[in-house]
Amino acid sequence: MNTLRPLTLDVNHAEHTLCVAPDTPLLYILRNDLACNGPKYGCGLGQCGACTVLVDGLAARACVLPVKAVLGRAVTTLEGLGTPQRPDPVQQAFIDEQAAQCGYCLNGMIMTAKALLADNPAPSEDEIREALRFNLCRCGTHVEIVRAVQRAALLQRRNEAGAQP
User: Fold this and answer.
1) Ramachandran angles phi, psi of 96, nearest 5°
2) Using alpha carbons only, how large is the chain's radius of gyration in Å?
3) What is the mean pLDDT of residues 115-132?
4) Which has the closest alpha carbon to 88: 124, 128, 52, 118?
5) Mean pLDDT value of segment 136-142
6) How much of the chain is in helix, strand and coil states, percent to nearest 5?
7) Which residues contact 94 (CB under 8 A, 6 or more apart)?
8) CB–CB of 31/37 below 8 Å?
């Protein structure tokens, strides 16, 4: 039985208690209840990547992830990475490289890139392409997206080097 009950979620560094069914896809909670519109509904099958979020720093498909699976875990959406005044290095790199056309895939590309760079701060072009291969883009901005991830890696390394005493 999938009855409503109060659940507390950690989303974008804030706790939210909602009365929801535990099997509800996380994407629905993020978009409908928490107004996080970065993750998009694409295929509903976890295959296109438009709904990608970070769960404890790892890329996850929110359209197929039940909300009960993220209890006690940190969920980060596109909105939780940076602000318009101070975007995350990955967001800034996508802006700088103009790595979007329609923008529908952008959330998944950025969130997947963020997870990749957390694990591998200096990926090769092949490693970037491999990490993004399950994020679909119909507009064909793949070249710009790869360049954006390369730029983001450089920006993050520079930021980290500047933060060191």
Assistant:
1) -60, -40
2) 16
3) 97
4) 118
5) 86
6) 40, 15, 45
7) 100, 106, 109, 110, 145, 148, 152
8) yes
Least Cα distance to 22 among 47, 35, 40, 3 occurs for 3
Region(s) of the chain under CATH 1.10.150.120: 89-163
Tell me the C-alpha distance between 126 and 2, whole Å: 43
pLDDT tens digits, one per residue of 55-74: 999 999 999 999 999 999 99
Q: Where in the chain is the domain with CATH 3.10.20.30?
A: 5-80
Alpha-carbon span 107 to 132, nearest angstrom: 12
Domain range 89-163, CATH class: mainly alpha
Task: Give 51: exposed, middle or buried? Use CB within 10 Å, 0-12, 13-18, 19+.
Answer: buried
Locate 16 and state its tokens.
């939210």
Q: Which fold has domain 5-80?
A: Ubiquitin-like (UB roll) (3.10.20)
Tell whether the model's pLDDT for residue 42 goes beyond 80: yes
